[in-house]
Design a protein that fits this description.
Blueprint (H helix, E strand, L loop, with lengths): L1 E5 L10 H17 L3 H14 L2 H15 L3 H12 L5 H6 L2 H8 L11 H13 L3 H5 L1 E2 L5 H6 L7 H22 L1 H22 L4 E2 L3 H15 L3 E8 L2 E8 L3 H15 L7 H21 L1 H29 L3 H14 L4 H11 L6 H11 L6 H17 L8 H13 L3 H14 L6 H14 L3 H14 L4 H12 L1
Length: about 475
């Protein structure tokens, strides 16, 4: 049985930083650190069989099997030794109880004559071990470090891919509600809880993979979202479908599935009890959070719902734009822009949908908004210039350029070397608002534009005009200084 929540989109304005970071770390560990495992294993195996370790360890392992009541396994193993089969090494190393005893010095003891040489060679051999061998969690050799590192390692690409898909689908939804810190804490604590539960139910063996930690995130998800209905995809063999149900309903289904698989899939390599432990831990953390921070959860629900509604409105606006329902689309984009006045994409969409009615108040408002954009980057400047010409050509009954905007545009165009338009706007400002306070600044901007364009005569003439026309202004003093330097 496979059940996973679906249907929500990522709000990239508020990106799921921790979710993405965890995915990147898992991928880095797998491709960069575990990627060299095969080469390391080959190098270590070559060293092992060129050393004296096989003569000291492999026969003792056969004796160990026999002494512990595994006579048949001992006989099979001795057959491998007789054939000098290199497979004997992984057979021995996968017996975690024996390896624990071996490393503890209870197989080759200090009283054995070869003890010192064996210890040196064993140390050198283990230093060549692959990243996975060194940092995987072993039940018989528990370690806080390997309990942590194993939560970021995977046994193969399919293992990694499946885990990362689930982490992304569930992670970004949980992170958007509980926040980055609790989400990261839940992931890490659940990883340890998964290790703990696995250790209780496993007799030896090792564990690696992010499944337990991700299960914790899934458990947290069900409790945090509680009775809120969500869409989820489920598969039963070859049958699959989508269902809408309360999120909390997933918790007993997930727990029941893991318990059923544990008791009925003996010999499976899947750590069902690790998943079970992670789910319980995440659910417990979700319960504590709901108890301690109910108002915070409700606030984030409201923010999340508002974001989803805005996303839906945006998509509806784009659909109306595609259907050339410009007035309806403009109403939607304009309402969104009023909530997000810094969103330039919405400002452009407002202008695009309004210009199909050049006599309407919406078009004049949208055009003047675009012409008033503060940005000085090349893209904004080019866009402003294009919209200026378009507005002059199609606005009805005439453009509605206020003196302040005329002065601002004149300076922008002068700085960008668009002198013809700057001159027109300067003359318009002189004619309609001869006492405007920005006139000296417009002239000075014109002079600077001429200087950058290496128009020396125009540069000097404009500076002289500033001094002559506005002798008491600060721009006149600046112009005088520029003339002396020139």
């Amino acid at each position: 049985m496979f059940i996973i929540p679906v249907g929500n989109r990522v709000d990239w304005k508020r990106p799921p930083v921790v979710t993405v970071l965890l995915i990147l770390i898992n991928c880095f560990v797998f491709f960069a650190l575990q990627g060299g495992d095969q080469r390391s294993a080959e190098k270590a195996a070559n060293y092992y069989f060129s050393s004296e370790l096989p003569d000291w360890e492999l026969p003792r392992y056969a004796n160990y099997l026999e002494q512990n009541g595994h006579a048949e396994d001992a006989r099979d193993f001795r057959q491998l030794l007789d054939k000098k089969d290199s497979y004997a090494l992984p057979v021995m190393e996968h017996d975690t109880k024996f390896m624990y005893e071996l490393r503890a010095g209870r197989i080759i003891t200090a009283q054995d004559s070869e003890s010192a040489d064996w210890s040196a060679q064993r140390t050198q051999y283990e230093a060549m071990a692959s990243f996975t061998e060194r940092y995987v969690y072993r039940v018989d050799e528990p370690s806080i470090l390997t309990a942590f590192t194993s939560a970021f390692m995977h046994g193969g690409f399919d293992h990694l891919f499946g885990n990362m898909v689930v982490l992304f689908l569930v992670g970004f939804m949980v992170e958007s509600v509980v926040g980055k810190r609790l989400f990261l804490l839940a992931y890490l604590v659940s990883a340890y809880a998964a290790i703990f539960m696995f250790s209780l139910s496993a007799h030896g063996g090792s564990l690696l993979g992010a499944s337990g930690a991700i299960a914790g995130v899934m458990g947290l998800y069900t409790v945090i979202f509680g009775l809120r209905k969500i869409d989820f995809f489920y598969s039963l063999g070859f049958y699959f479908d989508y269902v809408r149900a309360p999120a909390i309903a997933l918790l007993p289904l997930w727990l029941g599935n893991e318990a059923y698989q544990f008791f009925n899939n003996h010999g499976s390599n899947v750590a069902y009890m690790a998943h079970f432990g992670g789910l319980l831990c995440g659910a417990a953390m979700g319960g504590i959070y709901r108890w301690r921070k109910p108002a915070m959860i409700e606030q984030r629900y409201q923010e999340r719902d508002a974001n989803e509604q805005e996303d839906q409105s945006f998509q509806q606006g784009m659909a109306l734009l595609g259907a050339m329902e410009f007035q309806k689309a403009h109403s939607i984009f304009n309402a969104l822009y009023e909530k997000h006045p810094q969103d330039m994409n919405l400002a452009r969409l407002c202008y695009r949908t309004a210009k199909h009615d050049p006599a309407g108040a919406d078009y004049h408002r949208a055009a003047l908004r675009m012409l008033s954009l503060p940005g000085t980057d090349a893209t904004t400047s080019q866009q402003t210039h294009e919209i200026f010409h378009e507005y002059l050509n199609i606005a009805k009954p005439a453009p509605r350029l206020a003196p302040d905007l005329v002065a601002k545009l004149a300076q922008r165009f002068a700085v960008n070397g668009q002198f013809d338009d700057a001159e027109k706007l300067l003359k318009l400002l002189q004619r309609t608002a001869p006492q405007h306070a920005e006139l000296p600044a417009v002239l000075l901007a014109m002079a600077r534009g001429h200087y950058r364009a290496e128009r020396k005569e125009s540069f000097k003439e404009t500076l002289e005009a500033v001094i002559a026309t506005y002798p008491e202004s600060k721009e006149a003093a600046t112009a005088a200084d520029m003339l002396r330097v020139a």
